[in-house]
Amino acid sequence: MKETCQLAILDLGGLEVLLNLLDTNDIRCKIGSLKILTKISQNVQLQQTIVHMRGLQRMVNNLDSPVKELQALAAETIANVTKFHRARRTVRQHGGIRKLVKLLDCFPNSADLRANMEKDLEVARCGASALWSCSKSTKNKEAIRRAGGIPLLGRLLRSPHENMLVPVVGTLQECASQVRRAHGLSCSLLLDV
């Protein structure tokens, strides 16, 4: 977490190694890499370097993984990195908005609902956080709407978990002006979803 250590990782080529691990088939390597990337991606210089090194594309690709922990870590790291325009555009251009919206659907009709509920909620929370960060862009707001994100975010408003509600409400707030302009919806209709 120390900035000097983060910059040392960058200077010694560690960031490139961590990003390359996201392209492997070893799930444990990917998870380990993303655990570190999630922490160090809060540094602005590292955010820009991650985008420059095509790291966001690799993270977006990992959102399709069937491994919940990997999905959550990839989404959380995307949320950290997408603090500037180029990063948000990169996520959208590589199909990341659609994949992040898909993570919000954490209430599938399955028999093992309770066993996976905690993991599914964490994946949805991380997906909502990444969408909140990405929703600072007008084109991304439209992409969230087209991907079906508004009804899924509306469903998550019923969550009793505060850590889920903050990114959900933040994303809905960012998207509200875009939704109203595109469909003439009022905020009250949005909250009735």
UniProtKB/TrEMBL annotation:
SUPFAM superfamilies registered for this protein in UniProt: ARM repeat
Transmembrane segments: none
Coiled coil: none
Pfam families in UniProt: Arm
Record-linked InterPro entries: ARM-like, ARM-type_fold, Armadillo
Name of this protein: Armadillo repeat-containing protein 8
Organism: Goodea atripinnis
